[in-house]
Amino acid sequence: MMEEKFDAALQDVGLREKKKEMITALSGGEKQKLALACILAMKPPMIILDEPTANLDPVATEAFVSLLETLKEERHLSLFIIEHDLDPWVSMTDRVLMLGRDGRIFYDGPLREGLQEHAGNLKHQGVAMPMVSELALQAGVAEPPFPLTIDELRRRNPVLEGKQRVRKDEIPLLRAENVSWKSVLKDVNVTISNGSFTAVVGPNGSGKTTLCRLLAGIISPSAGKVEHPFGKKEQFRHVGYVFQNPEHQFLTDSVWEEVSYSGANRKQVQQMLEWCGLSKHVHMHPFRLSQGQKRRLSVATMLVNDQDVLFLDEPTFGQDAASTEHLMNLIEEKHRSGTTIVMITHDMELVDTYATRAIAMKEGEVAFTGVPEELWEEDVEAFHLKRPLRAQIEEAAYVPQ
């Protein structure tokens, strides 16, 4: 009887054929589906999900949300989603509770009306607008009814401005030549140019983090070589790395000590803590911070230094709208000051807004290198990506002559 329940739950989430596989062998999206199957087996009337797609690539996110929408309709399930990012959930949301920074609910009702009513205050409260609504506001076409879908926005003929990317002479700073690492990377060749802002994108498990750790000198290749202009002893003064898991880089017993560990002076430390919203937590142990605060601290420990190269692995994970914008502004400021930025991300809106170059990984190989505009012309779904909204709207509006 129990076995039948388990099999039915696995069938519901599309994992029946992987019943005997090790959990560690599953992709990020499959692990999330497995967690959902464990809940479905108990047949609850309601499921609460806390940022369920935060670690998934765009295609896995779409598949997971679609699965939930189907289960909601077929099982008459009630879903309670805790989220920073509204975009994947717009089509299935019939009620939204908006919480402010003080922890109080400032709106309870339909999504469209809530966005319309509080448009000017949402970012301050840490609530992210759906990208369609954000672009409508930027283009001055957000009159009622507030647009929530690409079709609704496109019908208003918005004028959307893309990022003006200044092409510079590309001077190689880091280079991987015929690099392989165990079974993860296969004969990779890639160059990071001095002063560039490079986004590394691709599916979960495609080798993004391994490539960046090799380029940063944290691990050594199984074959091939990585070239950089820094001496081996000096490398870690010139190269900074923000890990995907913040706890992996904490070394001290307080927030203050963590930021000052590199030798930054008192004024620099205080300023960085204020910029990252951590000045009230200087004596707290880093492991006692919230996940979002841990992420900001991990970024702060690197931003306070003057490295030539800064690697960031999913720097905006777990951040609300205001914190994400603030964090990216700090990273952009670092880039403008001359630091070469290499950022792993699943967020194509960030790539479209900030990156000057993009590297797309697929199954341990570099499948694309170039400017983001060229990437949007590729079959991005092959890399488990979705075009940024601006590119989707331009594509939908394009009529061949």
Automatic annotation (TrEMBL):
Keywords for this protein: ATP-binding, Cell membrane, Membrane, Nucleotide-binding, Translocase, Transport
A GO molecular function held by the record: ATP binding
Main location: membrane
Nucleotide-binding among keywords: yes
Entry superkingdom: Bacteria
Membrane topology: Peripheral membrane protein
GO cellular component: ATP-binding cassette (ABC) transporter complex
Domain ABC transporter: 166-388
Transmembrane in keyword set: no
Intracellular or extracellular location(s): Cell membrane
Pfam families from the UniProt entry: ABC_tran
InterPro entries referenced in this protein's UniProt entry, alphabetically: AAA+_ATPase (IPR003593), ABC_transporter-like_ATP-bd (IPR003439), ABC_transporter-like_CS (IPR017871), ABC_transpr_CbiO/EcfA_su (IPR015856), ECF_ABC_transporter_ATP-bd (IPR050095), P-loop_NTPase (IPR027417)
Family: Belongs to the ABC transporter superfamily.
Name the UniProt record assigns to this protein: ATP-binding cassette domain-containing protein
Species annotation: Pontibacillus yanchengensis
